[in-house]
Amino acid sequence: MEPAVLGGKLASSLVAPLVKKLFVTGGPGAGLADRPVRLDRLVSFRGERRRLGPKEVRGLAGKLVAGSLDSPGEPPFPLDETEAVTDALAARLLALGDLDMDDVQAVRLGHGELAARLRRQAAGSGNGLSTDARYFLDSATEWACLHVLEFFTRRSTFVARTLVAQTRGQAELIAKVDELISRVPRPDARDTAFERRYLPYVADRHNRITIYGIDLRDSPDRWPLEVAYLSLEATADGDRTALPDEPADPERTVRLPAEAALTAHDRVLLRGDAGSGKTTLVQWLAVTAARDGDRVPYVLPLRTLTRAGTLPSPAAFLTAVGCPLTPPEGWAERVLGAGRGLVLVDGLDEIPAAERHRTRDWLLALIRAFPGNRWLLTSRPTAVRPDWLAAEGFWELSLTPMREPDVATFVRRWHAAAEAPEFETRLLDSLRTKRDLARLATNPLMCGLICALHRERRGYLPTGRKELYDAALTMLLARRDRERGMEAVELGEEAQLELLQRLAYALVLSGRTEMAMETAEGIVARALPSVASAAGQGDAATVLRALVLRSGLLRQPGDGTLDFVHRTFQDYLGARYAVEEGHLDVIAGHAGHTQWEDVIRMAVAHARTGERAMLLRRLLAEDTPRLTLLGLACLEHATALDPLVRKEVEARAGELVPPGSKRDARALAEAGPLVLELLPGPQGLTDAEAHGVTVTASLLAAHEPVGALAVLRRFRDHPDLDVRRQLAGTWGRFEAREYAAAVLDHLDRANLFLTCTTPAQYAVLAEMRPWSRLSFRGPHPVSEIVGVLDPGVVRELALTDNPEVTDLAELAPLRSLQRLQLVGCGAARNLGGLAGLPIEELLIRRMGDLSALRELQSLSLLSVAQTLPGSRLTDALPRHAPFDFLYLGHTAIDGTGLRGLSHWQTLTRLSLAPTAPLDAEDWSEVARLPLLTDLRLNTSLLRGGLGPVTVLPSVTELHVAAFEGDEDMSTLPVRLPRVRQVTLHTAPGARFNPAPYAALFPDAEVTVDER
């Protein structure tokens, strides 16, 4: 029978009273006082509260069956089975009292499953019945169970009991989940726990350095980093923050503390000479990051990584450098993926040149896969070409040689750590009075050696570099504290030198700075038969172990590896062995490799007179500027030399002097202070040559400030703007007052900016003739800046990276101010406070509030590279300003687009470099500028597709910035039908053939401006 038919037979009016009679009515509440409350406690025919017995239940079932048979229609089963069906239904209802569950559990179970439980509990209750009777019995049981559950849900205790059950279930679930988490922690919890171990490990591992000379007696081998770390200066070629598309002013060198390099840029290539402190800086950055906890540092020495053959993935970073800690799976990728990494890749110059391109590809793949992290790569200056990573956004910095204050600080710290104050003053006096000695003290390594030698020799010091190295080696090899080693092996100084120089030469030949211990043992084993004093001290492993412990020149950076404590000693000893063995041809054959430069210089120092001449002639025979200048640098070490050879070297180098470009000047400066004697001028020089000479002298100022100043002073009356910019920009390399009096105060001020960064320069500024164009970089209160200026003279002012600029109304006394640049002044507010000044040109980058920009109605030129307020340009910019030039870059028009641009009908020049593409409405605004003749676009627009550009018939001049040579410009000619001048301003380092672009504009002159 269908359920619908059965529903008609089993009327609710029959079932409901039956259900009420079967169950005891409970009181309010959840019934917790009588737990557990089972069905057998609820039914009225069980226990002490019995009201109905089997007889009464049999009667109720009979009424239900009879009611179904009396209903209209066909009977649900044969009438002769009425008694049997009634008995079976009664048996199933009585089974409710035997079920071990409560009402909440029953409701959760459902009426169908509850009926099935009753059938199983009253097994055999339907035996002997016909098919229709059994079907009726099953259906009647389900229908009764449905009403039973309905009855339960209406009881006053059900809701409360349900809530209690849910609460208990949730509590049990939470407990189980907590237990599961404790057994299997979340990845971020495991990462945090690991970093609590890793960061202190990094801080401790890299917080120790060797201070040369202090470890000779009873001192520790290694000292805390804070004792010896000296904040050195890094420099980069920098330009005044020019207005967009304006020629850059190459007048300034950016100078900043080396440890601040990664706060200014996320990607840095740091160059520095041997011993300049590159590795110590890497250690300092790792330690400070680990202690601060804002970045997770990875220190990756390339010499160790490349030895394994394959450069590691992030997952293998720690294993590759021998870290004993095991991170959670995927931890490194999660760190880098979140942009929390500080990746410090040290020693590009310490791997063979053939592996550097592979290293570059590896590094760039990491950077592209994990953007947002900070990356530092260190190298010697000439290991790779300039702009090697510029296209990938790397900022190139160079560690500058230590200046006199740096040297004095180092000397004081060294003597304090060495507990030898009695030698400090005498050494400082020697460094001030002896020029040759001062020229050597240009980096931490050489300063440490000079301090150690000065103490060891009770105040006597050699003056030449070779003599200094010889003395240092004698000190380290002969006076090393014997109590350090537990070995019985004793090696004399000559025996140690013989073995060390063979190891050094093997490393030089391999182009590496690290070798396997097995390789080193093999070299020692082959040398022992010829080194009599060492042959009787044991086998090769024993002798090598003693050499590591006793020499002070070797160390074991990892298990099974060996290297020299510094590359300088490796090159010096390798050159010494090559000369002794007559391998001059080998040395000369490697002159083209930048890694061999110091080896060649030291070989000239070790060689005999005839050998020096041969080496220098081989360098000249290559006929390249670099090797010619290398030969010139070698003259410093050639105590005795054939005069004809010396003359030839100087003559050939003279062909490179004066330098004709900035690049030539840099190459010339690498030859060292001797170049200062060869620099001519200013008479007889072209403007470009004069500029090259001043660049060279500026670069050599740190090495030889007196000689450099003498050269630069000769050019102080030169009229060329580039020369004057160079002279103004090198102020920071000298003592502020001395340079201002000798050079700056004599310069023609026309079109010349002067940049101030230090309090000493501020003080001197007030003593000079007034400057009309000034730039102030760094955190300085506006009141102090205004206080050193002549308000009636200053016409142009640039404030850069100054968080102390707040209320711009403080600039109101500068009544002649016509041009203002605000770059990196994030707290600056109240542009309206400038409304009373005659400002015509305004540049804004990373400034604060721009809401009052619309009040500056005198502007004819505006450059903005941050988001403008409002939904249209007319909401943000001064409506009545007579704009001639407008630059909108970066996010400036993210909210406004170019809507409203056509309001300024005076515009003749427009420069666009937005981050978002332009739409048809934007280009229509451009097309409605009747006087627009000069259009400047960034290649970001070309790469994203120019979109629906309308024809711009008035444009006659097109500039494209950051051009790399693969951009599609095919749609521009038809849209700019009257263009007659096209200038492609290249991206740094980009080189390409301009012919295809010239063909696109047959009626225009196409030029390339290489940056």
Automatic annotation (TrEMBL):
Record-linked SUPFAM superfamilies: L domain-like, P-loop containing nucleoside triphosphate hydrolases
Tree of life domain: Bacteria
Keyword Amino-acid biosynthesis in annotation: no
Domain NACHT as annotated: residue spans: 266-580
S-adenosyl-L-methionine keyword on record: no
Keyword line: ATP-binding, Nucleotide-binding
Name of the featured protein: NACHT domain-containing protein
Taxonomic source organism: Streptomyces hyderabadensis
